[in-house]
Amino acid sequence: MVFWEGYMSDELMGTFAPIVVYWLYAGMYQLLPPLDQYRLHTRKEEDQKNLVPLSAVIKGVLIQQLAQATVAQLLFLVTSKRSSAEIIVQPPIVVLLIQIFMAMLVMDTWQYFVHRYMHQNKFLYRHIHSQHHRLVVPYAIGALYNHPLEGLLLDTFGGAISFLISGMTARTAAFFFCFAVIKTVDDHCGLWLPGNIFHLIFQNNTAYHDIHHQLQGLKYNYSQPFFSIWDKILGTHMPFSLISRREGGLEAKPLKD
Fold this sequence. Notes:
The protein contains ten helices and two strands. With 257 residues, the chain is mainly alpha-helical. Helix 1 runs antiparallel to helix 3 (54-79), helix 3 runs parallel beside helix 6 (148-166) and helix 4 (93-120) crosses helix 7.
């Protein structure tokens, strides 16, 4: 049993919980004190290098989330087989974990190849993917700031395919999509905080993705949001080292393999 049972369907929770979690988690980062000693870029760099204001970023994210919610509702409508009085039996915990891991691999595979192609195709990069790279210095609220078409192809369709191939229930999907959103926001937060569990577990983390937003890393570190498997297999992996800046704080320094 979950806390929303009896109040909201799993399908409705799977649609809207990731959106709520996005704004809560990204908003938490936005409300933190400056924490200059843990920033991968200075606040001055953020102001000077980013090519889009916060208001436009928020608008872009909301547009993507509207499309995301629409597709999710259609997906759940098509795949849900229960009547209003029927209760879906949830799988054993082992099966649930396998489904989540499979969904992570499928999402990573989809996003790697679509993301990489958007860099390699000059038309797609210039007219679509470059919108995301207007945030040269990433920050949490901008994690899902994309061209609407990219948001649909990369994130929304990637999530739908992960859901369908893994065979997870709508309830499992609600947890998985919330987890994926939190990981994506964290990868764009621009902070290397001590004890961050994502930095301890995943090689694909805040600094890893920050390299991709730097000029010398544009053709590397396409993998997102979980693992760096495809980058390593296909030769687009660029490791990094964290060094201390003279003025304080940290910098993710790209290293050639």
